[in-house]
Amino acid sequence: MSGGAARARGARRRWGTTPQLSLVMTVLNEERGLPAFLESLSAQTLLPDEVVVVDGGSTDATVSILESWGATATVKTTVIEAPGANISEGRNLAIERAQHELIAVTDAGTCLDAGWLDALVAAKREDVDVVAGFFEPMWTSWSERLFATVLMPLRDEIDPDTFLPSSRSLLVTRDAWRAAGGYPEWLDYCEDLVFDLAMKRDGLRFAFAPGAVARWSARDTWRAYAKQYYRYARGDGKSGLWPRRHALRYGAYLAGIAGWLGPYPAVVRPLLVLGFLGYCAKFFRRAWRRRPPGALATLRLLTAVPAVVVTGDLAKMAGYPAGLAWRRRSRPGE
């Protein structure tokens, strides 16, 4: 039996019908969104047995809000202050300090549907190590709506067999977390994907719970959006993820520029435009399915789709080589 298969077998234990459960998360300056998150947590149809939060060094009222909520909540709440801890370090520390073997993971920047935790637990069977929840957009501004509408996948785009869950909506056993080596503390972005892939490599079994929905907002400015996707791509480079996908993106844009500047523009340029619109088809579909009421608002949304796609691609093309350069210098895992 391979080492991965042995770890997977060791990560499976027989669960009772009502296992005790810890919810963990990390926070950093979440004063603005934290009250709405805590309200959604209090409204869960199934409450966790405890909440463990690691604060990475907030300078606002985050810690006091959590402590005030915990003092009156029916759920045992532990707040651990760990200034300078990144997301991976915070999650690992929270899981280490959690008292129960079943761990739900989310982010304080979300709002949880009332049945979120119930749906995660309902999908946990004896032969399942990891339950992947889903996520949907929410917004308070036009920019947040634009970015979330275009970029967040639709439910029918998800293949449950290959879906890599975000740790804003996840249920995992402590043994599965341990078998994967925990969250990668050397990585600042894309840490949840690396964690997912490690569990996949170890043969741990995933289930998809589409009804376990955590809602979150996209960035609210173009600058913040570009910075976010730069960091995502830099995380890909640091962790060596998706080299073919990034290479294809560079190749497509280089070919497009060469074709646009080359001879026979009357023939080539219309074909390039059609090709780009085809490339954007998935994003147009998302925008159409989530379109706002009114023809003018819908038109405004659809006409912004290409700008969103190009901005994100340029940010990724800048971030990925920065991550590769870091990887060559640092050689993570050695």
TrEMBL record:
The keyword RNA-binding does not apply. Coiled coil: none annotated. InterPro entries: Glyco_trans_2-like (IPR001173), Nucleotide-diphossugar_trans (IPR029044). It holds the Pfam family Glycos_transf_2. Residues 22-134 form the Glycosyltransferase 2-like domain. The chain crosses the membrane at residues 253-281. The keyword Calcium does not apply. Keywords: Glycosyltransferase, Membrane, Transferase, Transmembrane, Transmembrane helix. Belongs to the glycosyltransferase 2 family. This is Glycosyltransferase.
